[in-house]
Amino acid sequence: MMKIKSFIRLYGLFAIFTVIFLIAMEAVVEAGFVPSYIIPAPSEVYRAIIDNLSSLIFVHLKVTMLELGIGFILSVVIGVILAVAMFFSKTIEKIIYPIVLISQTIPIIALSPIFVLWFGYTIWSKVAVTFLIAFFPIVVGCYDGLRSGNSEYVDLLRSMGATKWQIFTKFHVSSALPVFFSSLKLAIVYALIGATIGEWLGASEGLGYYSRRMSGQLNAAGVFAAITILSIAGIILFIIMSLIEKRLLRNRRS
Amino acid sequence: MMKIKSFIRLYGLFAIFTVIFLIAMEAVVEAGFVPSYIIPAPSEVYRAIIDNLSSLIFVHLKVTMLELGIGFILSVVIGVILAVAMFFSKTIEKIIYPIVLISQTIPIIALSPIFVLWFGYTIWSKVAVTFLIAFFPIVVGCYDGLRSGNSEYVDLLRSMGATKWQIFTKFHVSSALPVFFSSLKLAIVYALIGATIGEWLGASEGLGYYSRRMSGQLNAAGVFAAITILSIAGIILFIIMSLIEKRLLRNRRS
Amino acid sequence: SSGNKADNNKLKDVTIMLDWYPNAVHSALYVAKEKGYFKDEGINLKIEMPADTNDPLKMAAVGKIDLAISYQKQVLLSRSEDIPVVSIGSYVQHPLDALIYNKSKGITRPKDLEGKKVGYASSPTSEPIIKTLVEHDGGDMSKVKMVDVGFDLMPALATGKVDALEGAYINHEYLLLKKEGVNVGKMSLEDNGVPDSSELVFVTGEKTLKSEKDTLTKFMKALAKGQDDVKKNPKSALNVLLDHENKNFKLDKKVETESLNILLPLMGDKTTPFGQQNPKQWKNLADWMYKTKITPKKVNYKDAFMNLNY
Amino acid sequence: MLELKDVSYTFKDGQKVNPVLQNINLTIHRGEFVSLIGKSGTGKSTILKLIAGLLHADHGSILLDDKPIKLGDVGYMPQHDLLFSWRTILDNILLPTEIKKQKKVKKQEAIQWLEKVGLAGYEKAYPKELSGGMRQRVAFLRTLLTGKNVLLLDEPFGALDALTKKEMQAWLLSIWQETKQTVIFITHDLEEALYLSDRVMLLHPDDDLEESPIPFERPRSRDLLYQQDFTRIRKKLEDRLRHDEN
Amino acid sequence: MLELKDVSYTFKDGQKVNPVLQNINLTIHRGEFVSLIGKSGTGKSTILKLIAGLLHADHGSILLDDKPIKLGDVGYMPQHDLLFSWRTILDNILLPTEIKKQKKVKKQEAIQWLEKVGLAGYEKAYPKELSGGMRQRVAFLRTLLTGKNVLLLDEPFGALDALTKKEMQAWLLSIWQETKQTVIFITHDLEEALYLSDRVMLLHPDDDLEESPIPFERPRSRDLLYQQDFTRIRKKLEDRLRHDEN
Ligand SMILES: Nc1ncnc2c1ncn2[C@@H]1O[C@H](COP(=O)(O)OP(=O)(O)OP(=O)(O)O)[C@@H](O)[C@H]1O
Ligand SMILES: Nc1ncnc2c1ncn2[C@@H]1O[C@H](COP(=O)(O)OP(=O)(O)OP(=O)(O)O)[C@@H](O)[C@H]1O
Ligand SMILES: [Mg+2]
Ligand SMILES: [Mg+2]
């Protein structure tokens, strides 16, 4: 209960700002300054959401969240494994870091035939895109976090005869958490973008697909309905990550 | 000179790995396991690069780098300003953070009509996409970095009568650098993706445009030629960032 | 019913990838599926949607899908790049592509494009088409400014960033732009020097054609039956499509009805029945594509298509 | 004049509550040198933080020359050395000068100071290259160079060897005699407290502040340490401290 | 038996070169209690780091029972307390037990130890809630609980008040008399060094190690501090230290 109250207090300001912004937008579109097939009036978007609410939420959002969930978990697991492997072995680092980098510089649309070839139009092609986008900040953040630890503590543990693995679990893991969480917050948002882009590369459900369909019909209200829901989902995911971060980093001497 | 030597020693391993990988790819494609119109043989890609080298480098890469340069600088400047503003004022934070988040959850293709409306098909539409993608990690990294400082040092400076601004410049800026650089390394890579995607939304030059044109002509070798150059550019940019990071963080007690 | 279930086991899976998301042009597919015409032929049809307009051809070539709906020009382009695909039937036998332009910019004939901006979607055929158009009318192509507008054709014209579009369809973009109140006109390509072509064709991989010729013939047969139904009763055919889609996406009924009206005359008439491909059309197109350097080498058009007998 | 009137302070962290100081009263005159001693954990450092303005008293008031104390009024040396790892030694000690923007203390002066505390040649070194005692000397110099009239020193010489300590004490006294700064000095070394101070305040765990004036003439010579008067007071204070054991 | 033979060590950082130790020789017998004193910055902490295996001698060898020393052979307490901020006090002192996975020291025992050093009730507190002296006591306990035969203590009681220090010294001696651990103890408090040790080693800036045996019987009583023999040795060492001033 306390949580919710303080949440409202905290974000009330943003809410007020949003309302003012929406009213202004409505006026601008009404007055015809911006064509409504490019930026629709907020009221139209609202209607587009309400009219399709159950399909937007229970079909499209659900599918997007599923893709995001699997992709994000995979990127955390594999991203952390890669970062840890790089941390332990310079050899692995020298090989993997460039590959990780290359994976990011390739335009995803160029990969679409390859993904389709491998995964077909199953959920896995979207998971693959989600993974590809979200694992990069995790690898970099986790690796940088692991390297950031004060070496005096490492020396102390070494003097106790700690193995490399013990030094890792007892010290580096904890000292990496701040940088790591900073990157997790990025990654969760990128995972959402990833799922959306994945849906553009071939899908029949999901908010990304929905927005693409609506855009093809020049239905701006429909596009923004999907965007609105995506944004809200993104903010909620980010807030959840921030709360986990706050909780886990509570006892740090800040 | 020393730099170059140690560079070669460091990345020699990756080079060997790459060569083996390319030879394997060549064999796989030659043998017909993968059709060359989906993944072209490295030798074909090499020929596609060599045949068009001067246009790839001096026309397309140049344009993409220009878009990236302007977009990246803008995202650093504005991203840092936003992060600093959020750091100094809870009110600003409450308003700006959600907006920053929303900006990331919107699929860029959905924004393309709006960009067209505002910027037409000038370089600014690509700069805008670059900016939009790159500024997010900068804002989050810079903000998290600023908040990560040990408060005992802040107390020490406060006791000297330092103003908020002095505490900021003398302590927070320096203590934010590690997390900030971690995010800059992400941002420079994302800026490259941004420029590429921006070019898909309408352009007449640039490596993203080139890869899309080649894809339209079903010329897989051409697509991969552009990708190869993009990847190399991405890695070089990342390495430059890492070197700057190393240089600036040299004297930290690690 | 339970009888159907037993049959299901014997059905052969056939995957078709559409050119774009489902719209009026695909009515026949949905009607034939709904009415069980495919099942009658022993086919269990799966319909998929592509990411990129270039994907379906490649997927058909590697046999990842059995059939793709693609463009005649793309088939020739693919063959020139040694992508082994074959067209087995014509879906829309004439161009839907036309020059769509903003009437208020003073364009009345192709020559008027001089000094104007023409937007296109990164397609390698757009520039040669405009060139053919303008030069056929005695104009100077070097005075026309071509603008690659990426994915979005409509906003480019609607916001006045370009004066005309190449690659927009008379049954889609044209209708939608009109609906939004943009003052658009259209100009046919084949009346202005560009050879006639089939906008949409059914494409399969060479290997698939060899091994599954029988099944593919049956597919065409079932589809032709579906197209007959569409012709006879466009309204109810469209309803099948709309019903199928409306669960999750609302198609604009008015636009789709108008679209189907435009499409039906282009999908088989007395001279060329539905699905039939005209060798002459293939030859003229292949010649033109070589002449305009769209294909780097001359494609043997006879290998590019095959008319199945059903 | 520095006055603490009825000062109380409690650490709160969620549900945990730790009442550290209750109704502390203390008056220190301008130019006085006062040592603060007491068992570990009684709240000596907390008192300094309150005076420095870093913590705010729950009750009571802290006045400097009849005005409520505010940040920047005093020079404060914390118990941890807290050197800035990315600054050279010289830049570390020049920090307060930078903050005040007065550039009163010029580089040359700062280098001379480093020489005086036995750190000649270390100007351009970084903190990680220094031993524990050297770091503490740097932190001490940094505080000195705030140039404030009131100096709060939290165990400034704790990590120093007897000899270096003696030198530093001599320096501190000579500066103090010149500038007549007010000094509050936390130490666990009774000898040090007695030798340097005008008054020694003993903070008992029950928050009672016990005062012992140190009546010796100044300037004091090192021989004082072995005089009977001196050892008597020392013995007395030791007993008072031992008394806290129960 | 612990032997340092001709040990030299130089800090190198890029072009900066700081030769700290040269040809150090030292033999310490099993169960001996040796104090290491000397001016700040002479290299005392560096010697402990070498013995702990954290630094590697440029020349010479360090042998424990005739075998080259390796990491984990000794219990080492660094000069900074280095508590883990995300661990409770109890988890901090249980760290070596976790590392050894022997769970020799159970939670109950650890809590008893906390009581003995005056930190009862602080098991679940976090380091940031402790005063400087309390933190040092925790760091000391953590070293003790490594259970090693050789303990290297770098100014363990530096931040403690006289009384707490006295208590801690008593504890240390009583444990030592029971377990007969070998102890190397760095301190700046000559009295402490003399009172606790079998031998005091004075490290001169020129890297000469000067030995002073402390011949007093054990167990030693506190009165020893005021005996003439004791003060004489103390005085002598003070002079030797002062000698280093030049
Ligand atoms: N941040 C904090 N949160 C909670 N409790 C704290 C905090 N800082 C100090 N304390 C508590 O306040 C009490 C007094 O601490 P303080 O640091 O003032 O002691 P001290 O007299 O300086 O001790 P020492 O001689 O060991 O430095 C201690 O019991 C300590 O546990
Ligand atoms: N990491 C380092 N890099 C360079 N020089 C160092 C480093 N650590 C210590 N030194 C130097 O080595 C010398 C000895 O340091 P050490 O910490 O051993 O001194 P110490 O005798 O323990 O002094 P103190 O009594 O002040 O703790 C000093 O001159 C110091 O400047
Ligand atoms: Mg204290
Ligand atoms: Mg030391």
From TrEMBL, chains A, B:
Q: State what protein this is by name.
A: ABC transporter permease subunit
Source species of the chain? Terrilactibacillus tamarindi
User: Which key words are in the record?
Assistant: Cell membrane, Membrane, Transmembrane, Transmembrane helix, Transport
Cell inner membrane as a keyword of this entry, yes or no, is no
Which Gene3D superfamilies does the record associate with it?
Answer: MetI-like (1.10.3720.10)
What subcellular compartments does it reside in?
Cell membrane
Domain ABC transmembrane type-1 span(s) in chain numbering: 61-245
Topology relative to the lipid bilayer, per the entry, is:
Multi-pass membrane protein
The record's section on SUPFAM superfamilies has: MetI-like
- The record lists the membrane-crossing segments as 68-88, 95-121, 127-146, 167-198, 218-244
**GO cellular component annotations of the record:** plasma membrane
Checking Pfam families in the record gives: BPD_transp_1
Q: Which domain of life is it from?
A: Bacteria
> Is Cell membrane among the key words of this record?
yes
Q: Which GO terms describe its biological process?
A: transmembrane transport
The family this protein is said to belong to: Belongs to the binding-protein-dependent transport system permease family.
From TrEMBL, chains D, E:
Alphabetized UniProt keyword annotations: ATP-binding, Nucleotide-binding, Transport
Write the protein's name. Answer: ATP-binding cassette domain-containing protein
Q: Where is the organism placed in the taxonomic lineage, from the top?
A: Bacteria, Bacillati, Bacillota, Bacilli, Bacillales
**Region forming the signal peptide:** none
Q: Which SUPFAM superfamilies match?
A: P-loop containing nucleoside triphosphate hydrolases
All copies of the ABC transporter domain together span 2-230
- Please indicate if the UniProt record lists Protein transport as a keyword: no
User: Listed GO molecular functions?
Assistant: ATP binding; ATP hydrolysis activity
Give the source species.
Answer: Terrilactibacillus tamarindi
Q: Name one Pfam family in it.
A: ABC_tran
